[in-house]
Design brief:
By secondary structure, the chain is α/β, with parallel strands linked by helices. Among the domains are: about 140 residues, no CATH class; about 55 residues, no CATH class; about 150 residues, Alpha-Beta Horseshoe (Leucine-rich repeat, LRR (right-handed beta-alpha superhelix)), CATH 3.80.10; about 160 residues, Ribonuclease Inhibitor (Leucine-rich repeat, LRR (right-handed beta-alpha superhelix)), CATH 3.80.10. It contains 12 helices and 38 strands.
Length: about 750
């Protein structure tokens, strides 16, 4: 009996081993497929197809049958990727296998995927990157963040087209330039690893891509949050510049003189949160836009560096700077009329506090009490002036001085009073740990943003939930480097002509969620690069006849949720608009030649996006759309339309998405779309008894939605007899709900 049990045990064990060895790569795994091709989008969103793989060693048979090119597997169990398991996928561009407990990736796992552009294996359990896994792949981006990678093969990333590699949050302790032989990678993210030394010739791999008389540049290199104690004096021998280079939050104490001897230019160099005490001769003969040395042990930063170098901004907060050094810098900046050291007031305050300077300490107390005064747009009220008097009563001398020098400021109301401004960027090369940097600035009293914004390297301005009743002339002007401005939820009631001018880089302007009632002529004039304008959720009832004139690059206007009752084509003279969204307004009529401005401004006769839902439209002029021949998306749902006049779409050759639900349409003439191709038409909740089958045949209609109409059973029978395609309209549902 014992022998019999042993036989059973051995047999079961053998079966278990056999099953384990032969288990498939993908067992009960859900795969999501989608696309970046906007022409396949539905309602402005990408389609998503979900596939369940019960048991397979390859994705090919499940993925290659689909027209979608992005593959995502997330939060599944895929312990290993075998050779060819993610191979032989001729149309796939992006593959993401995230949080799937992958421990090993075999060489050849991604072979024969000719269009593959990026691979994302974030948040798995990978410990080793073997040679041959990524070697020779023609991909541009590889993401391996949040794994347990300790070892990387000497040729792991050789001979690739790779430009971006992300290895944050792993256990990598050594850097090897040989990893990248034959690969032009220029962005490497290695934050939060275990590196202790950056060796000589760390970027030697780039030398083979060096062109004659052209500097060799790296884009974004991040060594932050490692254990770096040493950078070899020849670490940067083969590189000439960086867009972003970070050694933040390491253990660096001493840097070699002439460390950057071959480097001529760095946009942002971050040494914050280290132990650096001396920077003599380190930054000689170099151009640096931002040098960040926050939270080190510097007692001073020498001014003589400017005899041989150019550094635009230096950040020194959190260093034990001597008072003599701070005064030297203050004198240097005044003498040269230049703002180089950022936050000088804070540096001076922290330094001088060490000395027993009665007047200074008293003025600090005054400033602190002044900060307790309640925020207001201006200090014109008696209560505000009383608060000032209480704040300054610490010293009769200071009272007199303060009143003489500041009373004129207090009683004049500025555009920006106690306003917080956030500055950020869309440039991913400046991101830290994948997050955009944000700089917050407090404006106590000013009529313009110039001195607060122009001395920063960031190009996006955000002002949200502040109190700015009026934007006066020049208030948001003369900002040459700003590409995006957002002023939302800030109670703006009025904008003066000239409030926005001399903004040569501005592409995006958002003024939504304010209290605007009128857009005057020339408020937005001369914004020569503006592409997107948002004015949603205001109270706008009046638009000047030239409100949006002469904006030569404006493509998209959003003015939803306002009180606009009429449409004027004159608003857009000189402006080649491509999309307009005016939902939730008060328009009752769509007038003749709505888009006549296109003929004056451009040869283009197409509109990508016209949204007029949730208005009060009852009437559409037969010539409303006579100036356009293509509409990608037309939304007229939730209006009061009873009739679509004959000929209204005669010039339009194509409408992709047509939304007409929730109106009062009783009949649609069979000849209405004689010259028009249609894809999606939605006519839910109208008063239609039938939809002419001729329209389906003439237009190539792909899908028709007719639910919640009193469609007659006779009409449905006609559809069935003529074999109307099942995917055009739901015949079963129509037959079930038809009116007899």
């Amino acid at each position: 009996m014992a022998n019999y049990n042993s036989v059973i045990f051995l047999t079961l064990a053998s079966l278990a081993c056999f099953t384990s060895v032969d288990s498939a790569v993908f067992e009960n795994v859900t795969v999501s497929l989608t696309t970046e091709l906007t022409k396949l989008y539905v309602y402005g969103r990408p389609p998503i197809d979900v596939v369940l793989i019960q048991s397979s060693n390859t994705l090919g048979e499940y993925v290659n049958l689909q027209p979608l090119e992005i593959v995502t597997i997330q939060n599944e169990r895929v312990p290993f990727l075998k050779e060819n398991s993610v191979g032989n996928l001729p149309n796939i561009i992006h593959v993401s296998i995230i949080s799937c407990r992958v421990k090993r990736v075999e060489p050849g796992a991604f072979q024969n995927v000719p269009k593959l552009d990026s691979i994302n294996l974030d948040s798995n359990l990978i410990e080793t990157i073997e040679d041959g896994v990524f070697t020779n792949l023609r991909v541009r981006s590889v993401y391996l963040n949040n794994n347990k990678i300790v070892t990387i093969g000497n040729a792991a990333f050789n001979n690739m087209t790779l430009t971006t590699l992300s290895l944050n949050n792993n256990k990598i302790s050594k850097w090897n330039s040989d990893w990248f032989v034959g690969t032009p990678v220029n962005s490497i993210y290695l934050s939060n690893n275990l590196l202790e030394v950056l060796p000589a010739n760390a970027f030697a791999f780039g030398w083979m891509f060096k062109k004659v008389n052209v500097p060799l540049l790296a884009w974004h290199i991040d060594f932050s949050k490692n254990r770096l104690k040493k950078i070899h004096p020849d670490a940067f021998t083969h590189i000439n510049g960086f867009m972003y280079l970070s050694f933040a939050d390491n253990y660096l104490g001493e840097l070699s003189p002439n460390l950057f001897k071959s480097v001529k230019q760095i946009n942002t160099l971050d040494f914050s949160d280290n132990r650096i005490a001396n920077v003599e001769r380190i930054f000689d003969d170099i151009t640096v836009n931002q040098l960040i040395l926050i939270n080190n042990t510097l007692s001073c930063f020498p001014t003589n560096v400017f005899d041989v170098s150019r550094i635009n901004f230096i950040f020194l907060d959190g260093n034990p700077l001597t008072c003599g050094c701070v005064q030297m810098w203050k004198h240097f900046q005044m003498q040269n009329n230049a703002l180089v050291v950022y936050n000088m007031e804070n540096l001076e305050r922290n330094c001088v506090q060490k000395k027993n300077n009665f007047i200074f300490n008293l003025s600090v107390k005054v400033n602190r009490r002044l900060q307790r005064i309640p925020d207001s747009r201006c200090c014109c009220s008696n209560s505000c002036l009383q608060s000032v008097a209480m704040a300054t009563s610490l010293s009769q001398l200071l009272v007199a001085t303060f009143l003489v020098t500041n009373l004129s400021v207090l009683v004049s109301c500025a555009t920006f009073e106690n306003v917080t401004v956030a500055l950020t960027t869309r440039w991913t090369v400046l991101y830290v740990d994948g997050t955009a940097p944000v700089k917050t600035i407090r404006i106590r009293h000013d009529d313009t943003l110039v001195e607060y914004v122009n001395n920063q390297p960031l190009s996006v301005v955000h002002i949200k939930d502040q109190k700015i009743p009026v934007l006066t002339r020049d208030s948001v002007s003369n900002l040459p480097n700003i590409s995006e401005i957002v002023i939302t939820g800030s109670g703006v009631k009025e904008m003066h002509a000239g409030a926005f001018h001399n903004l040569p880089s501005l592409k995006f302007l958002n003024l939504s969620g304010n209290l605007l009632e009128e857009i005057r002529d020339e408020v937005f004039s001369n914004l020569v690069e503006l592409e997107w304008l948002h004015l949603e959720n205001n109270r706008i009832a009046t638009l000047g006849d030239k409100a949006f004139n002469n904006l030569p690059t404006l493509q998209h206007l959003f003015i939803d949720n306002n009180k606009i009752a009429i449409w004027k084509r004159e608003w857009f003279d000189g402006t080649p608009l491509n999309s307009v969204s005016m939902a939730h307004n008060l328009m009752e009529k769509l007038p003749k030649s709505m888009f006549g401005f296109l003929l004056k401004n451009t040869q283009r006769r197409s509109i990508w996006y016209l949204v007029l839902n949730n208005n009060r439209v009852k009437e559409i002029h037969p010539d409303a759309f006579e100036d356009i021949d293509e509409l990608s998306y037309l939304n007229l749902q939730n209006n009061q339309i009873e009739e679509l006049p004959l000929g209204v779409f005669r010039t339009i050759k194509y409408i992709n998405n047509f939304e007409l639900s929730n109106n009062n349409i009783r009949e649609i003439d069979a000849s209405l779309f004689n010259n028009t191709k249609l894809t999606y038409v939605r006519l839910r909740n109208n008063q239609l008894k039938c939809f002419p089958l001729e329209i389906v045949n003439q237009t190539g209609l792909y899908q028709l939605e007719m639910e919640e109409n009193p469609v007659s059973c006779k009409c449905v029978t006609t559809w069935k007899e003529l074999e109307m395609k099942q995917n055009v309209v739901n015949l079963d549902n129509a037959e079930k709900n038809c009116v007899r």
